[in-house]
Amino acid sequence: SSLATTFLDLPLANPLMNASGVWCSVASQLEALLESESGAMVTKSCTLDPRNGNPEPRYRVLDGNKPWGSINSMGLPNEGFPYYLRYTERHDYETKPLFISISGLTLDDNLAMVDSLKDAVTPAILEINLSCPNVPGKAQLGYDFDAMDTLLAEVTSGYGQRQLGVKLPPYFDIAHFDEAAAILNRYPSVAFVTCINSIGNALVIDINTESVIIKPKDGFGGLGGDYVLPTALANVNAFYRRCPEKAVIGCGGVKSGHEAFLHILAGATLVQMGTALYEEGPGIFTRVKAELLEIMKQKGYENLADFHGKLKTL
Ligand SMILES: C=Cc1c(C(=O)O)[nH]c(=O)[nH]c1=O
């Protein structure tokens, strides 16, 4: 069996990569991802200028009981767009593809970053984050369909019809899947969608301290891990069905070959890991690769195409 695949006509050794935001904020982390067995990698969503983000504690792993996961309200801390643009100029693209994630605080900031990327003519693949749930006072673009439409119209024309993708928040209503897909399908240069970002504004409470467990936003933060897997699979499959011309990248609840297999079955071409990578480190790619290969072998699948998108219904 082989995990080899292609994405936007680029060859990848395997479909696994990090989720933006995890193990990808500074050069040392990006170099560790490059050296890891991931098939690709993405940078931390960046703003035009560097940001410190929210006060700590702002990330906590929820490992007391089952299910397992994380809550975060980082607040978009990042080194600023120029730092990541410089990294795209020194990345080794022969080793693996690189995605660059942007999450401008304003439409103009997003357009300025897109413009610089277009002029840089870098092989890095742009993933625009429409779903950052943790910047106080800022609504997620992915939940404001008019704003999302306007952004895509401006960005796709600004990016000269070059292929790009969007990172979407989870949707929970069929009408929202329909409406979001209808907008995305009007932009052929939006070549992929990454589903999902964390489930925004969850609240984890500790019975012993009778308190929330992260400092920002009175404890409200984005949820990741086991808790989000069924919602992630639903969003992957919903957009896989509605956007036949686009690729879907799955993200949410992947911590082993098992969940990676489910995401690919549901229609994901690539699979991102967030919480599990945060906790285990880049060695996780070696483990999950082996687990996915083992599952494929047990099932008699030679390659990813043998089961990609082949989810059965009853
Ligand atoms: C880019 C900000 C994000 C953040 C953050 O920096 O708080 N956390 C997430 O779970 N998803 C995001 O998209």
Can you tag this structure with a few keywords?
globular; 16 strands; 21% strand; 314 residues; eight-stranded parallel beta sheet; alpha/beta
Topology:
Layout: E1 5-7, E2 10-12, E3 16-18, H1 27-35, E4 41-42, E5 59-62, E6 69-72, H2 81-90, E7 98-102, H3 107-120, E8 125-129, H4 145-158, E9 164-168, H5 174-184, E10 190-195, E11 199-203, E12 205-206, E13 211-212, E14 220-225, H6 229-242, E15 247-251, H7 257-266, E16 268-273, H8 275-280, H9 284-299
Parallel strand pairs: 3-16, 4-7, 7-8, 8-9, 9-10, 10-15, 15-16
Antiparallel strand pairs: 1-2, 5-6, 6-14, 11-14, 12-13
Helix pairs in contact: 3-4, 4-5, 5-6, 6-7, 7-9
Bound molecules: the ligand C=Cc1c(C(=O)O)[nH]c(=O)[nH]c1=O.
Residues 21, 45, 72-76, 103, 129, 131-132, 134, 197-198, 222 line the site of ligand ERO.
Would you give an account of this structure?
- This protein is of the alpha/beta class and 314 residues long.
- The chain has one domain (5-55, 76-202, 228-306): TIM Barrel (Alpha-Beta Barrel).
- It contains 9 helices and 16 strands.
- The protein has helices spanning 27-35, 81-90, 107-120, 145-158, 174-184, 229-242, 257-266, 275-280, 284-299; strands spanning 5-7, 10-12, 16-18, 41-42, 59-62, 69-72, 98-102, 125-129, 164-168, 190-195, 199-203, 205-206, 211-212, 220-225, 247-251, 268-273.
- The strands form 4 sheets. It has an 8-stranded parallel sheet with strand order 3-16-15-10-9-8-7-4.
- Helix 3 packs parallel to helix 4 (145-158), helix 4 (145-158) runs parallel beside helix 5 and helix 5 packs across helix 6 (229-242).
- The protein is globular.
- The model has no long low-confidence stretch (mean pLDDT 97).
- The ligand C=Cc1c(C(=O)O)[nH]c(=O)[nH]c1=O binds at residues 21, 45, 72-76, 103, 129, 131-132, 134, 197-198, 222.
